[in-house]
Amino acid sequence: MNILVIGAGPAGLMFASQIKKLNPQWHIRIIEKNNQEESVGWGVVLPGRAPHHPANPLSYLLDHETLDAQYLETFKLTHHNDSAMKSTGVTLCGAERKSMIKALRELCQSLDINIEYEQPVLEEAQLAADQYDLVVVSNGISHTTHFYREALKPKVDFGKNRYMWYGTPQLFNEMNLIFKAHSSGVFVAHSYKYSSKMSTFVVECSEQTYQKSGLDDMTPEQAEQFIAGVFSQELDAQPVIAQAGLKWRQFMTLSHEKAYDGNVVLLGDALQSGHFSIGHGTTMAVVGAQLLVKSVHEHSQNVEVALQDFNQRVMPVMKLFSQHAEISRLWFESAEDNMHLTTPEIAQAFAQRRASLPALPEALEAALKYALKR
Ligand SMILES: Cc1cc2nc3c(=O)[nH]c(=O)nc-3n(C[C@H](O)[C@H](O)[C@H](O)COP(=O)(O)OP(=O)(O)OC[C@H]3O[C@@H](n4cnc5c(N)ncnc54)[C@H](O)[C@@H]3O)c2cc1C
């Protein structure tokens, strides 16, 4: 089989490495628009301990220990400068995004998969079935480069809050959620360590707070200082650091009703993205990639049948993911309404925000169990 993968993020690299392991004779080409060093964001939270958890991409690496991933078992919520701690219930893994992508890239290269960096965006005609049996579009959600296929009924929504993905050398040993009342409004930080030296520090606030605080008119350096001041107690005089070129923005959710059209199939964020507050995007990329591997491997004689099978299995889990992510996004968009609550009350409201939905981890476990059955 001749396969083109567009985008060398977790989804594309996971799919390419796992399908190639099963079919070493297949030809797989990966193209990536950025260079090898570029990677958006700091650390992400992943499920379980590597190498035991199949939804954790680190489990597929031979040398996952070199990533300096951090395991988290405690959740800490801070509100009115008062904290409540409880168990996360499951082990979570904080990992640096750049190192994880580098390790997945090296895994692909060790399997003789060619990855071409700094590639121009391909024209539609270059994806035709006479050139590739299968084209996997795993190009994430960027604000500029999508593959819009009307047949797949794409939908784009923007959240109301503004957010910024900072990193900080302050080590947050728990999964932290910090609510901070400020004269310009409420700021919320989501923070946890992802290496022995750094933590992720995602901050969000309403548009009104964003405008009133003056963040819109600040230089990136002024914004870093302002946010470090808002969370000075938790940051303990450590800075927050923004990646060059990254701006405060509204979260973009990209959804589709169908995963494939002809020989082109969507994977990862390019198929369904979901709000960062549930920390599942990379996990969904792994689950989607493994389901696609299963369908393509089992129906390699007929790509149409393979993609039909994939569509049927992946869309229900993507729908559930999108419901969980939407409920969570909306909850954070109304954070100001909850500021009058006591710390135990807001902790309870946070824990309950997705309770009306079927559990996502169980659905993902079932999907992976099926996908990994050989
Ligand atoms: C603030 C924030 C916090 C998050 N926290 C977490 C978390 O804690 N846990 C978690 O699991 N997820 C988290 N996520 C989500 C996670 O980062 C994504 O879901 C995940 O990266 C999706 O992987 P992907 O491979 O589909 O897309 P991406 O990682 O976006 O990779 C897509 C790749 O395609 C490339 N590309 C784009 N266009 C083209 C093109 N036309 N041609 C070639 N290449 C192209 C891009 O350069 C990129 O390398 C977070 C997201 C945000 C915004």
Automatic annotation (TrEMBL):
Transmembrane segments: none annotated. This is Tryptophan hydroxylase. It comes from Pseudoalteromonas amylolytica.
